[in-house]
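Notebook entry, structure prediction.
Reason for the run: the old model in the group folder had no record of what sequence produced it. Starting over properly, with the input documented here first.
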Amino acid sequence: MLDGAQRLGLPTSARKLASLVDEADLPQLAAALVRVALDKRKAEQVRSAATA
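New structure, fully documented this time:
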């Protein structure tokens, strides 16, 4: 999960990551970061969408 955060340029501290979203959204954030950690192309897609 922290690898995914690093790929996206997000904080790599669990506490700092958790502060970015509401508590109810933590499972979704964690799932997304795992997907990004497992597939480098996902990180590229997220970065592209964020800058569009």
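Summary: Residues 22 and 29 are 10 Å apart (CA to CA).
The old model has been moved to the deprecated folder.
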